[in-house]
Batch of 4 targets.
Target 1
Amino acid sequence: MTPIDWTTLVSPEALQPRLGDDDLVLLDCRGSLADPSAGVAAWRASHLPGARHADMERDLSGPHAAGAGRHPWPDAAGFTAKLSAWGIWPATQVVAYDDGDGAFAARLWFLLHALGHARVAVLDGGWRQWCAQGRPVDGLEPEPRPASYRATFDDTLLVDARGVRAHLDAGGLLLDARAAERFRGEVEPIDRVAGHVPGAINRPYAANLVEGGFKASRVLRAEYEALLDGRDPEAVVAMCGSGVTACHHLLAMAHAGLPGARLFTGSWSGWIEDPARPVSTRQI
């Protein structure tokens, strides 16, 4: 069979015939912010055949550091060691999935993207759509398949709080992926301060979805071009509560043919670690 090359999304129909390919690694990113043990328990019970589990807290985040927020960006050495243990090489085709709306899988996608790993995609519709269509699953733990992965993150794709201020001062677009009521500061179920970064605009990441999967690329392109209002995609920095759901926007933009947007890694939880930083609840 010809080599596969999925770089943003892959459908269940396209993935199933390639299960078991030597150069394919599946990563199960299911998890729950409310129950950190739920993801691995679900994976042990049943998963796509051959899938390994990638835990949000243990594998897709680093140790806490000042300003890093609730899900700190990991260091490259630690993350590439995980990739090696999962049997991933720089040329491996990786497919990630979760059981929600793709946000956890998108975090994995952007971590690899920031390493320069092109052949990584998210399963459109994730676990729910896969199972709803009656596709194969099993509960077997895959055999270890050690590899060697060495790379560093492209720091130009990652922005801290100081960089966000400079970005806004230069007329850049700061796109907050949280739900509208959190952005407006009406509710805050997780972080100690409600509101948003002054100058940010709100597009809840759920706006990228329709009927449990991503909208068509042409639809996403039209919607993001309206937000860009003549700017280049590089003029976008995406944020959320902790740098996870913001990756959904980065994936959606890339799928729409608008790559180059960046991530505010600490996001809202990192921004509010410094009480001197301004907070807005003004509706935009």
Target 2
Amino acid sequence: MRARRLRTGLKGWGGVGAMALACVLAVLAALLLPAVHSHSGGGGGTDGGGGHGVAHGSQARAAEECTDPEKQTLAPSGDDGPTIDAIRAREGEKRKLIVGVDQNSYRWGYRDPNSGGDAELEGFDIDLAHRIAKDVLGDEDAVQFKAIPTDQRIPAIQDGRVDMVVRTMTINCDRMKDVAFSAPYFRTGQQVLAPKSSKITGYDPSLADTEICTAAGSTALSTLEQDRTDGTLPEGVDLRTTVPNQLDCLVRLQLGEVDAVVTDGALAASQAAQDPTVELKGDAFTTEYYGVAMKKDADDLVRRVNRVLEQWRADGAEGWQHSYDRWLSGTMDDAAKSLPPPPRYLRKG
């Protein structure tokens, strides 16, 4: 029988301090950035929600015959188009790139609670958003960040509340029916996070009869649900605990309300860095790629972002490797495992 009580490991400084940090970040998520709420006629509360709409261009056609979603994107281009023109046409203080981000994912998109009340968002995804803003508007600070819960990423794009989402968002075939993706900028995979004292050893039979937390609308949840349908999920696994944001799963784990968390290994590593009483269990059991998500008909913006990504990969001084070294090298062991292979495009243009 699983005990639902505060784990003894949290009594030490590391666990208490980590819980405090997690809770502070969760509160900041509600207070410090404009919340993006569910649209009444839109996504239905899940990342895959909303109507598929009208198919646009090669990427939409590829989504209908999707096998390798990370390869289904448009070739880079510096040409302007209607989407970029509309962004540049915003006047005064509104002339900014509006980007949906997370603000409570440690080292990806977060506010450091030790930096004071005016702490700016920082992290790997935030670096990329600044880079895109500089290319599109000539000013890396010409960006407005909006906090987007995991299950609201696609509705926020479809409803026009953001121009793009840069938020550890996995490229997959289902999502390509609703949004367009850039080339991949990070490689990861689903992984199990659990207390160090746990008998759980990974995504294996040791998960039997446990309760797992996932974020609503996440690939972790959809993967586990599919495995349950396929009969490959360990017997007795309870998937009923879902939360709006991944950090909420860490808090549930700290409180002893769940036995494990399943999420992208990149995020799990950051959560383990926040709380020394938990650790990653076993290897990643999927291979996934993060991409920048945009509206389906925003071909010019997709191409522009892909050009930015190519430059970011090649720029040693302020590029991908620099951001990795600054934000992620302390929580992840090998940049070579995280850098996606050179992208393949649908067509030149």
Target 3
Amino acid sequence: MSDILGIMTHRIGHPGSFSRHAKSAQAEKFSGILVYTPKDVNLTTRRITGYVYNGGNWSRQTMPFPKINMDIGFYTGTQSTRATLVKKAPSFPFTGYGIGNKIRIQKHLIASPVLKPYLLPTEQVKDPNSFIAFAKKYNSVMLKPINGWGGRGIVRISLENGQYKVQKNGELTQIMSASGVRSMIRKVLSKERHLMQQWIDIRNKQGIVFDIRALMLKKSEGNWQTTGIAVREARRGRITSNLKSGGHAYEASSYLKKEFGDEKGEALAKSIREVAEYIPGFTEKSYRSRLCELGIDLAVDTHGKLWLLEINIKPGKLIMRQLYGQKAWEQSLHTHFQYARSLHPKTK
């Protein structure tokens, strides 16, 4: 069992839900998988108690650290602190490492002269007054949890005629005074840290929000591949375009041509590809750390200007299924296992 693949996640529930992972691992000649959460790792004894899949069966076992591990979890609070500690443990290698919260990522990205022109004004919310000042400066801003994912907890706040219009996904728009906004900011900051970012109009001709997801995966040879680029169009009335909340994926180049004309659409598609291909190498160098996959979220405003919204180290791959079909989606999920196999000491 020395070539078992470790898989760290936030919650196991029923181990059978990891059967797909087990099949992918076996296809890459791992003897099985060990699924565990950060709290299952004993850093003193260097052993893990988790669920082992071997020969078609699941059993709970305590084992030494696997020689290579994948991290597929989404952690919050104390679990996040614990996961960071685990990933810093010596001789406990992972296929990819963290890049921190959205503010830390922004600091790395803005240091690149290539990426700086694509970045929106973004600051951490220190207190309600700093938020009000930012909103007055830009008129319309997005408020985001700095550790958020999948569009969770994002709010758009716009200043109109001395009042604030507050929009959340799936909720009716609220009108607030400055003091109402201050108390809302106090409330959200008491739960978690947030950032504020200038809002840009990224609605299409029909008034529907859309952005672009570029999925970058590292191949077993260690080089990056642009696996898919798709427009993600939101459900009507939503302020973000997450596919899990009912959005739809479209082929990027033809969508952009339809919105901005052939020449401009072609130029935008080319720029998107160039930015997406630049980011993985730059990010690994900037963090001096290994990554294995990246979801790069870009947007084009109504003036045809390209923006880089954010990068994610554990991107959803629904664009692959919606746009390229079941087989391509399955292959995109499998790529991570191929890369894990290439890092396993036995294969070197």
Target 4
Amino acid sequence: MTPVELSRTVLHAVRCAVDEGQLSVAVPERVVVGEPGAGGCGEYATNVALQLARAAGKPPRAVAEILRPRLIAADGIEDVVVTGPGFLNFRLGREADPLQDLVREIRGQGRRYGHGDALAGQVLALRVPYEVRAEVVADAVVRIVASQGGRATVEHRGGRATVQHQDGRATVEHRGGRATARRHGGRAAVEHGELVDLRPVPAPEDPAPLGPDAARWALLHPAPHDRPRITADHLVQREGNPLFRVRYAHARVRSLGRGAARLGFAAEPGPLNTAEADTAVTPARRASALQAPALHTPLSDYPRILTAAATHRAPDRLARHLVTVADAVLPFLTCVLPIGEEKPSAAHRARLALAEAAGTVLAGGLSLLGIDAPEHL
């Protein structure tokens, strides 16, 4: 129930009390509903009983008690509590809200959102050539397969590769013999497993001058059959660079969290009230708020994309999906924090929670690709 709908419900209760002779007042044209003040409770409150008391010839609390049973009986209201001199405080019934439930799920699981057991018990031996793109793709596949409960090692024809993960990154050592993968301080030596050939189109040149993050993105973002571009475009901070959009979106979300803390509020999943809760917003901010539902599909699709990337040994699917998430969240971010005379509200807390959920997905996905998710950019 939105504030506008709640206001109409209160007006209807007043009208019914007047029609039944319990109140003798003129029904007001509108009722103001806002957040509870000091000593209040629930999601919303109104002072309508105080406004009607003089005309009704009754104490405000008596007016509130007349309205209370009618309001409790209304759809969408779970409870009504009278506080102070006669304020009506509303606790709303929780309606099914897939986006709100999704935000709660992502917040509960953190960066492990999307991890599962689709490959539980499976052991893969990834056979790759001695080539930088193949090494980087294999390293990402090891991480992504592990996110789905499987295990993967990296083998080279006539040699041995040990993949060591430290602080989310990986280095590859070559030796003679079989393959061993060292992950997160543990060791998993694989004698037998499904043999998978990974032979992506080789990099045309050494990507190292791009730096670790841009180099990995340049090698992982294209499909394996596409030739990667090793160019300075991956370093340019502008919208045309997909890596920049993904990392910038994450950094912006983190910045909004810091801004909210300075304003004295934190993220809390709840109704977004995208248009109705804002009584004095610009058309641009209203349009930004209405972008919220567009985030549901890319966020809810993330576990499926992660499973597909693991099953098909295709980290490029994950990379491209992160671009989709970033492109969906960036237009929404301008409505998260209050501006001007706006006060932090439940809607702002809910929007921040949604933005942070998108940031969690971006950070988790980048981590699986071995790429840093910056706090500042």
